[in-house]
Amino acid sequence: MKRLIALFAIMALIAGMQPARAQARAGNDTVGMVKNGSAAAAGDSVAGSQLDDALLDAVSDTLPIEEESVGFHKQLKTKFIEGNAGFMSLVALALVIGLAFCIERIIYLTLSEIDAKRLMEDIEEKVMGGDVEGAKDICRNTRGPVASICYQGLSRITETIDTIERSIVSYGSVQSANLEKGCSWITLFIAMAPSLGFLGTVIGMVMAFDRIQHSGDISATIVAEGMKVALITTIFGIIVALILQVFYNYILSKIEHLTSQMEESAITLLDTIVKYKLKNDA
Hints:
The chain has helices at residues 2-26, 30-62, 72-82, 85-112, 116-128, 132-140, 145-154, 161-179, 183-215, 220-281. It is mainly alpha-helical and 282 residues long.
């Protein structure tokens, strides 16, 4: 629609220019010719400027508007630089170290997961068949805390049930502690990240008030700059804490899953040993 309007305007301007030029050429009087010529020249200049404006408008409407696209990493880098470099570096360091602990725990827990039911079926089959050493070999060749607990119980199969149970419970506590190793550091960085952000916020506000005091006037630019730097540190601190919290909850879920596997396997192993003893006593 804008292009049609611009085209009609150009045609109207061209049509209006022709009578003025004809009148300038048709005058017989020299003075009239001069006057008409000057008027025509002025009209031509005005019409020409209007024509140029109309053409520019039409061209600008047809050309696509190029929007500046800035990548997310560049925006993140810009905001990081705008914040206080000291505190932003501490927040980034907390994120890196916290993620390192999270990745280490996730790899360890993932490698510790096995098919516990299948393992217990194989152990029960070997034990009830009288091949206790074969059951121990299965435990030795299987990774994870479940197999370790089963090996600990089978190594004391000749002792009383109470002794075997205490041994399994004690060794299970050790394996549970190994599963939770490093989690305290993750919780530390989860608490540190927003605390560092809030500390940067407070220091940024203090710096803003210092600038106001030195300038002797409350300027909106000074106040806005100080508050912007202060709030950026808080935002990044909260984001880091949220990221680490998600990984920490995932790690806790895997620890709970492995702990339940250890408890179920310990109960199944005790039942198998009791059946084995009853069978041999009979």
